[in-house]
Specification:
Elements lengths: L1 E2 L10 E15 L2 H13 L4 H24 L4 E13 L2 E13 L1
Parallel strand pairs: 1-3
Antiparallel strand pairs: 2-4, 3-4
Length: 104
């Protein structure tokens, strides 16, 4: 399945706009990861633990988005938008939305 953040696909025509599809993934971070990230934040640098968790959330959200689009009979999802939110201490949410379409 073709998945893109753009609203068009170069060289391909959208035959049918089917539906908006969305996926929400909530992830918990553990105490050790929070502690290590806090140290990284204090001394500077990147937090590999949180980067890994965000990457995991993004992958799961996109996979679920693709599955929902397939159930609608789509062969592509265009205009994908990813949002990352902190719900509360130790909880992150990844939201993926897009338009399920059939392209020629």
């Amino acid at each position: 399945m073709l998945m893109t953040t753009t609203s068009t696909v170069q060289g391909r025509e959208v035959e049918t706009y089917i539906s908006v599809v969305s996926s929400e993934v909530i992830l918990g971070a553990n105490v050790v990861r929070d502690f290590l990230a806090g140290i990284t934040d204090f001394i500077g640098g990147r937090s590999g633990a949180y980067e890994t968790k965000l990457s995991e959330g993004r992958e799961v959200a996109l996979r679920e988005l693709e599955e929902k689009a397939k159930r609608f009979g789509a062969n592509a999802v265009i205009g994908i938008d990813l949002d990352f939110e902190t719900l509360r201490e130790g909880m992150m949410m990844v939201i993926a939305t897009g338009t399920a379409v059939k392209i020629k």
